[in-house]
Hints:
By secondary structure, this protein is mostly helical.
Amino acid sequence: MAYLGSFIVGGILCAIAQILIDKTKLTPARILVLYVVAGTVLGALGLYDIIERVGHAGATVPLMGFGNTLAKGVMKAVNEKGLIGVFTGGITAAAGGITASILFGFLIALIFTPKDKY
């Protein structure tokens, strides 16, 4: 059932993004920012936990999951450290994912040779 929930929730999130690309004049970059902000807001309100329970990896892997991770990290850091947690919590919570993306991007850059597009 976890696979089915992941597939459905991830598919819905992708379908919404595709509809936004097709039916609006929003650029993909703006849609990405919209998803991160939506995940942050839903996480701060405690609503993203419901989506995670149903969607598992389909909800935690996409950009909305990143926004939710930032919101959870900030809330935890504020509870532990006070106001300074607003500035440190999100980065601390997302440090593993950010580090992995930099490391894997570097490794891929070493393996493959980029080509100019004409």
